[in-house]
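Reading a protein record of the kind used here takes little practice once its layout is understood. The reader may check this reading against the record printed directly beneath this paragraph.
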Amino acid sequence: MDRLHTISSTFTELERLIDRHVRAYAKSLEWDLGGRGLRMSDCWINIMPQGVTHSLHLHPNSVVSGTYYVATPRGCAGLKFEDPRMSKFMAAPPVSGEGNPRSRRYVTYPATAGNVTLFESWLRHEVPSNPLKAERISISFNYDWA
């Protein structure tokens, strides 16, 4: 079930609220949408019990992707993004984990209940393993350029 916004008024209302953020995000990136808009194409729930991982991936055929956090127990995994230059580093030496965040190969945004995280759909990301007994619950979505 990946189109919850089309079958549930609860998710339709969430779509309405997220639309506002997506429009602001597109504006901040100075996108020229050519008179077209961005519309939610997919929306699904993620329930991650202890030990569950969502490995590195991207969202092809979408423009903006994101997650709304519903339940995020203290210490749960955040959303980890890969530096998009990774395939170009070849023989580059590793970067210190204590180094400047701009130099890191990955950056993790914390999962905080009530927050929305948006990103361009081509950006590879993952959710590391949930180390907790409590479930991490989020609602993820994609937007198309319509």
In short: The first strand starts at residue 38 and ends at 48. Strands lie at 38-48, 54-57, 64-71, 79-82, 106-109, 116-120, 125-127, 136-145. Helices lie at 9-28. The radius of gyration is 16 Å.
